[in-house]
Amino acid sequence: MKILVLNGPNINFLGIREPEIYGGNTYKDLIQFVTDYAVTRGVGVEFYQSNHEGDLVDAIQKAYFDKIDGIVFNPAAYTHTSVAILDALKATSIPTVEVHISDVASREDFRQVSYIRQVAKKTIAGKGFAGYTEAIDFLIEYLK
Ligand code: DQA
């Protein structure tokens, strides 16, 4: 089983950006945490992060050709704006779990809209890095 862990804009700034919201750990720490967990679950994980909407669309299309089984996806700010990313997920039909480090439900009004939620098999928010590993657990069960 191959899972793509896809992250959107400013996730590369974890540890620097608003630590009171996103914590003090870095993107590198996130990769390590998820990689270690994937080993214990016996699944392969690939990582991609971009600050650019079209790059994320390209990564989703590439995942289709690479026969990726599932996507753990934190689209970050594009969650709330991107029809292009929604369409890419619809086009490829790759089972996707939407993850947010922070509890978006308790934040600003503009964060209450998610274009991704309508295609996501599950949405996990407010659990920090543990949301990513919970998403892996969900995909393993879902893809059985
Ligand atoms: C986020 C929440 C988004 O609203 C925000 O734009 C982000 C990160 C999260 O992980 O909590 O960049 O997706």
Q: How much of the residues is beta strand, in percent?
A: 15-25%
Mean pLDDT: 98
Q: What would you give as the CATH superfamily?
A: Dehydroquinase, class II
Structural class: alpha/beta
SSE topology sketch:
Elements: E1 2-7, H1 19-22, H2 27-41, E2 44-49, H3 53-65, E3 70-74, H4 83-92, E4 96-100, E5 122-125, H5 130-143
Helix pairs in contact: 2-5, 3-4
The structure holds 1,3,4-trihydroxy-5-OXO-cyclohexanecarboxylic acid.
Note down, in words, how this protein is organized:
This protein is α/β, with parallel strands linked by helices and 144 residues long. 39% of the residues lie in helices and 18% in strands. It has a five-stranded parallel sheet with strand order 2-1-3-4-5, with helices on both faces. The structure holds 1,3,4-trihydroxy-5-OXO-cyclohexanecarboxylic acid. 1,3,4-trihydroxy-5-OXO-cyclohexanecarboxylic acid binds next to loops. Residues 10, 74, 76-77, 79, 100-102, 104, 111 line the site of 1,3,4-trihydroxy-5-OXO-cyclohexanecarboxylic acid.
Task: Please summarize what this structure is.
This protein has one domain: Dehydroquinase, class II (Rossmann fold, 3-Layer(aba) Sandwich). A five-stranded parallel β-sheet has the order 2-1-3-4-5, with helices on both faces. It is built from five helices and five strands, in the order E-H-H-E-H-E-H-E-E-H.
Salient structural properties:
18% strand; 39% helix; Rossmann fold; 5 strands
